[in-house]
Amino acid sequence: MDAPTPLSPLTGSRHRENVGPLWLGRFMADLPILVLGATGSTGRRVAAQLSAAGHAVRRASRRGEVRFDWSDRDTWAGALAGVDRVYLMAPHELPVEPEFVHEAVTRGVRRFVLLSTRGVVEMRDERLLAAERLVRSSGVGWTVLRPDWFDQNFDEGFFRPSVLAGELVLPLGEKKQAFVDADDIAAVAAAALTEDGHEGRVYEVTGPEALSFPQALDVLARVTGRQVEFRGTPDDYRAVMPADLAEEQIRAWAALGDGEPTDTVARVAGREPKSFHDYAAQAWEGGAWHD
């Protein structure tokens, strides 16, 4: 089935294909870019970088400038009205709704940049694989971002309590991850949203080096003076997690190999990615882990 021809946000008609290309380019540049999850780790950074570059941004989240809730369809129309590009993500464990993608295209969205994750195929993460299939089959431009583990997991995300408690438990042993800074993910997303040449591409977004979790925690210790013990066996993980969840995650993570660095940030965003050491030093200077 052919994808529906999008409605013009100005006229409600289906005649964008008759608009001259130069006028269309200026018209699209003036439309706001919808950023979902605009209060989250990547969303707020995407919005900030777009705004700093002079782009109009619509910040949407459950508690943002524009209210958006995946479970409340009445919030979708206001978020989508008059936008042509979307930074698309769903909160942890929630799917990207097919009806939202269809409505977005119907209302005139011409480009999606989807936040997925590295290792999505190996881990058989059906939630994110389904989201990738949705944007690929949407009939409009798309780019998929597959970042490695976020640096900010350690100071903003779910590793922070473990760092403060002095013990991190994950069944990953000595496997290496190419930890990536959320600012660098946002820079790649901003480029994909505003520049040509990124449509139909899947970008693995990483930092400049691969580190095991023990190595990353050693970096944190050198920067902050905080010693964090790493317990990395499956049995360690079983001891602290509910049994069904532990087994599911152990199986998923067992499929991961070492995460080698890529050149995506330098190639797409035009800058070198931030090292984990520089991330840790800047976070520490900004007050992270001081309490």
Explain how this protein is built.
The chain has about 290 residues and is of the alpha/beta class. It has a domain at about 1-145: NAD(P)-binding Rossmann-like Domain (Rossmann fold), CATH 3.40.50. Helices cover about 35% and strands about 15% of the residues. The protein contains twelve helices and eleven strands. The chain has helices spanning about 20-30, 45-50, 75-80, 100-105, 125-135, 160-165, 180-195, 215-225, 235-240, 245-255, 265-270, 275-285, and strands spanning about 35, 55-60, 65, 85-90, 110-115, 140-145, 165-170, 175, 200-205, 210, 230. Helix 2 links the parallel strand 1 (about 35) and strand 2. Helix 2 packs across helix 7 and helix 8 packs parallel to helix 12. The chain is globular and about 50 Å long.
Secondary-structure topology with pairs:
Layout: H1 21-30, E1 33-36, H2 43-52, E2 57-61, E3 66-67, H3 76-80, E4 85-88, H4 98-106, E5 111-115, H5 126-136, E6 141-147, H6 160-165, E7 167-169, E8 176-177, H7 182-194, E9 201-205, E10 211-212, H8 213-224, E11 229-231, H9 234-238, H10 243-254, H11 264-269, H12 276-285
Parallel strand pairs: 1-2, 1-4, 2-3, 4-5, 5-6, 6-9, 7-11
Antiparallel strand pairs: 8-10
Q: What would the keywords be for this entry?
A:
291 residues; alpha/beta; seven-stranded parallel β-sheet
